[in-house]
Amino acid sequence: MQDLESTLNDLSSSLETLSTLNEGEPPLELDTESSEALVTWKSSTLKILERLENVLNREAAALSLAERARVISLAAVFIGQDNFTNEACRAVAQGKSQSRSTTRPTEVLQGCLGSIDTVDRAVATRVLNDYIKPLFQASVHPGVHLDTGRMKHNAISVQSMYDEQPWKVKGSGSWNILVWVLWSINENDIEILWPLIIPPLLTLLDDYKSNYKIRGVEVTNALLKKAPSSLLRRTGVDELLFKSLRGALQNLTSDSSPELLCTAMPCYLTLVDLVLPNDDLNRYAKLTELITDVIIPGWLYASSRVDVMVASVSALSLVVQALGSGSIRFLKAIIPQLTENLTPKEFPPVQKTRELQIASAKCMLLVMVNARPRIPYWRVRILDSILRCWVDIGESKPGDIEIDHGELRECLMSIFRELLTTSGNLLRKLKGVAVKDSGAHHVGREMTDLPEG
């Protein structure tokens, strides 16, 4: 086993080197493209991972509990979509047959972690207790009891855990270790391991930087695949997660905000489905909070950032689907914003403008289907926006040449067909209106060729 110990020591030393590359600052915040040191580090670390894989292919069956735990604590660091890893490192660490998802595949894995056939309670406890817990000891989340993983009442502000954060420098990839353990453990062990999982998860999720919040969402997704709803409710962790995810969704000031919106919203909705499947009143309250406290207030900021608005509208689509007809009460806020998004703008680049129009058109269609009785009131505003958008598609713009408009055209036509379904008789009044813009001729022709009766 000397080869194994030597290789693990080399990998551990390599991770210590990683912690120094950003001059004492977190390695995750290094600029991947401009950091030659990081590129060189990944290349040398890949060679160590390959050595470890070869050693494990020979000696995996004889691994002790401590050795299995150490392999996981070092190799699982590289399974994420982080700047200090890449596709080659991921393939060697976790196996080429496993994709980055919230569930572990059933097929036998290749790679370093594939040598760990099962992760029983003893191994998982060793990993979490020896490698994860010490990293987060100085950044304890104030909202949870460390010994039980239960919610604290009258907890102090999370600001207190920002004073010291050694896990950001010394614990790069610790979130990936948490994800791997959650993928791999038996569901029956989750309650025993609860106090070792929940505190670091919440520390990640409530960090003040969005790139760590994203990692916290990934860990939360893995948790929700294993944790029973009764355990989440009994420990009060469901409410802690709701609060933390809502805070993540309100974080709109960083470059990572669009990604955070797109990852946190499905996670929040999964939590709603898990802990409130039959509680209509509380379920409705949790869903409407997303619109009143997250989506609508966020539009004030997102109006100056097209990428954030695209993510916000995509997130709104998920909420509208979950609310169904319950989304009717928000039409006065939703439809004006969506029609504004569809109306042509001079936002550079054109690609982002089209992405916003497509996302808004898809969301508009969902809103219309779920609120059919109220759509006739909004018919003129909706029709005006889709006609303007249609005309705009036909006009050539710099940077517009490479963009495929087929998806947007189909979305606009679907909205128009839905308008015919809900407001056909009212739209017939427009038969005498000439469609002057050639770009709108196709839509206008369908509108004015409606059958009588």
Characterization of the model:
The structure is a single chain. The N and C termini lie far apart (86 Å). This protein is globular. The protein has helices at residues 2-18, 36-59, 65-75, 87-94, 111-114, 121-136, 166-170, 174-184, 190-205, 210-226, 229-235, 237-249, 257-275, 280-302, 306-323, 331-342, 350-370, 375-394, 406-427, 441-448. The protein has 453 residues and is mainly alpha-helical. It folds into three domains: 1-116; 118-250, no CATH class; 278-453. The chain has 20 helices and no strands.
Brief summary:
With 453 residues, the chain is an all-alpha fold.
Distinctive features:
single chain, about 450 residues, mainly alpha, 3 domains, 20 helices, about 65% helix
Number of domains: 3
What count of helical segments does DSSP give? 20
Structural class, by secondary structure, is mainly alpha
Rounded mean pLDDT is: 88
Overall spatial form: globular
Low-confidence stretches: 97-109, 432-441
Give the total of beta strands. 0
Distance between the termini: 86 Å
- Helix amount: 55-70%
Biggest β-sheet description: none
Quaternary state, please? single chain
Q: Order of helices and strands, N to C?
A: HHHHHHHHHHHHHHHHHHHH
CA radius of gyration is 26 Å
β-strand amount: under 5%
Furnish the topology, listing elements before pairings.
Layout: H1 2-18, H2 36-59, H3 65-75, H4 87-94, H5 111-114, H6 121-136, H7 166-170, H8 174-184, H9 190-205, H10 210-226, H11 229-235, H12 237-249, H13 257-275, H14 280-302, H15 306-323, H16 331-342, H17 350-370, H18 375-394, H19 406-427, H20 441-448
Helix pairs in contact: 1-2, 1-3, 2-4, 3-6, 3-8, 6-8, 6-9, 8-10, 9-10, 10-13, 12-13, 13-15, 14-15, 15-17, 16-17, 16-18, 17-19, 18-19
InterPro entries: ARM-like (IPR011989), ARM-type_fold (IPR016024), Tti2 (IPR018870)
Protein name: Tti2 family
Family: Belongs to the TTI2 family.
